[in-house]
User: What shape does this take?
Amino acid sequence: MKSVSFVLVGLLAQYASAFPGMGNMRKEAGVLPRKPVAEPASTSSSASGNYPAWHPAQKGEVRSPCPGLNSLANHDICPRSGKGYTIPILIDCLKRGLNVGADFSTVVGTAGIASNPNPLPSGLYFDLDMLDRHDFVIEHDGSLSRADATTGDNHSFNQTIWDSVLAYYSGMTDATIPVAAKARYNRISTEAARDPNFSYSPVQFILSYGETALYLSTMGDPITGVAPLEYVRSLFEEEKLPYELGWQPPKVPTTLASLGAMVLQLNAESGETIPEGVILGENSLRAVLIGLNAATGEIENNALYALAKLTGALGSLGGTLKSLTGS
Ligand code: HEM
Assistant: This one.
């Protein structure tokens, strides 16, 4: 594999002497004012609208490093307990909550189940806190709102890190593909430069783009990627779906195809070098979520691939392989 430019960029990036998350000082110039913390809802729907009540996790409930799943759980759209997430549960609640298609829910849910340390004997499910498992499939370094695993907390929302993303949106009311792309790449470059254990494989490269595509798609528009910034902030900062601000699930579904197309646009805007042999898009996104090498289509993660056989995530594998290998 040829040398990858993110390492160089990382080395050239401004050196930061300490990890973020040690304090919540708003150091960056031009950062938007912090949102007030939301009040928990006590009834099943708000007086001002017909949407599911929100409250953060309570004793015995668990949450994840994913603002999307946490928000859905906080509204009890996905199980509020944060436990026992199966593929059928995910297909249903991601559809109802965010209009995410079954194709994506099946493959990302399979990768989630792979984070369960004992998926076969205990059943094909995961609990949200199992998603903290680092570098196995989904959880990775250089996140938008979480610190790297090296710091000891890759799970909790980190205001300092998130502020470094928000700084890119200074003066804007909407998140957009070009700006989101630069904010994401800055997070990768920053951690590459300062985290001695930074890891960033092609799997994480693709999934990290996918996560940026997810917030733009579900808080805004899966085609244009334009999302009101206040909606995005509600998702990350309060882990709350922004119904009260006027948000409704997008009418256009978020699918593997829409995410793949947006990943491609995000990469074009970031200018980041693509790992050798990888063709960004729907098929490489699906490939990494079912344990295949995104460049060659070969099985790379045996445990994940075995799970994908059981959950139905292999789907149109023939098409995926053909597209990856060009054969
Ligand atoms: C079964 C479904 C899902 C699973 C298993 C899952 C899992 C994860 C995990 C493990 C992370 C942490 C990655 C990291 O280390 O940064 C993550 C991040 C993320 N997820 Fe999800 N996710 C799912 C669905 C969704 C959905 C539907 C959304 C829609 C908003 C979403 C939005 C995000 C975003 C924006 C991040 C990036 C957070 C950051 O970088 O700070 N996810 N997800």
Summary: The mean pLDDT is 86. The first strand starts at residue 174 and ends at 175. The pocket of protoporphyrin IX containing FE is lined by residues 64-69, 90, 94, 98, 100, 108-109, 112, 131, 138-140, 143-146, 211, 214-215, 218 (CB under 6 Å).
